[in-house]
Amino acid sequence: MSKFDIDPGAPWPPRDYLLPDLGFGTRAVHAGQPPEPRTGAVMVPIYQTSTYAQPGVGDHLGYEYARTGNPTRTALETCLASLEHATHGVCFSSGCAATSMMCHTLRPGDHVVSSDDVYGGTWRLFTSIFEPLGIGFTFVDMTDHDAVRAAVRPSTKMLWVETPTNPLLKIVDIAAMANIAHAGGARCVVDNTFATPYFQSPLRLGADAVVHSTTKYIGGHSDVVGGAVLTSDDDLANRLFTLQNSMGAMPGPQDCFLQLRGLKTLHLRMRQHAASAGALADWLSDHAEVDAVIYPGLPGHPQHAIAASQMRGFGGMVSFELRGSLARAEAFVAATRVFTLAESLGGVESLIEVPAAMTHASVPPAVRKKIGIADGLIRLSVGVEELVDLKSDLTAAFEETR
Fold this sequence. Notes:
Helices cover 36% and strands 14% of the residues. It is an alpha/beta fold. It is globular, with a radius of gyration of 21 Å.
């Protein structure tokens, strides 16, 4: 389909404008975003409306009510689907909302096998919201395939895979998890937030659905909250569209516009995030006051070979264990000036945090200890600033807290 073949009288933008034969960067800029036919606007307009006029009863122009559909949202959903090699994209108001909608496809009595080292908000959602509703969850180290197989039950309907994991950056073999899930009649769902579609394509490895917190790298500028599910499973997509419309957890048009803007530079930003993160991981590995550095790109990472085989780059997240106590870790992250002490990740600015006291504080200490989240663990979201300034900032924090 050419951008010049768009019918001005047809619903816009077309949901099939996926451009699958073009490169990643080209799709990030153009998929789902042909020029608006009435005015020729190159950028997708922000359709700030709650309802749409209809020529006649039940005769609409592709949109009837903004909770059900919005052209700005359609553009974002189509672009994300293209980047994840999916046929359907369904966007939500946050990453947690996207995760919630996947859980709402389950019924009481169903069972989920989940990565043990998941985002703290995902763990809280599973254990505090959906477990009391009758859905069972078993958390396992998904790098241990035998443990995953042992956790699968006849009632297991979903394997929830996070890779790289948060915050220990374990790499899970997606193809192996998909095989285990399908052998048991379950879906394999992958949280691809850390890797992004630029570095990892779970659907091409056998996964049934991909989940993103688009707040992170996809938005890329720490100014919008959103989530998405991408899939080529027609039944799942229809169920998700129904949930989106019925439960109302959809993003507004301004949020969708900001995420579309972020997508246009995703490939450029991810290259810089990964280059700087890899350089910092190498540098930290030789530091006398660091007990361990966790980065999938390091040859010593336990799953480095898997990362190299299923990823096209190793991402912008680095975790390391600072020698000393939780108090020292808290003092260290408060001492940086270029790295901003804050939760979240994936923006152009570098962020630093202590998972035990921040993003994973909702995970009980005993569970954190079992998973391996040490009190002195520090997580870096490496931004696009100059590498020399990032190193100098961390060096000053080491010296200040020595």
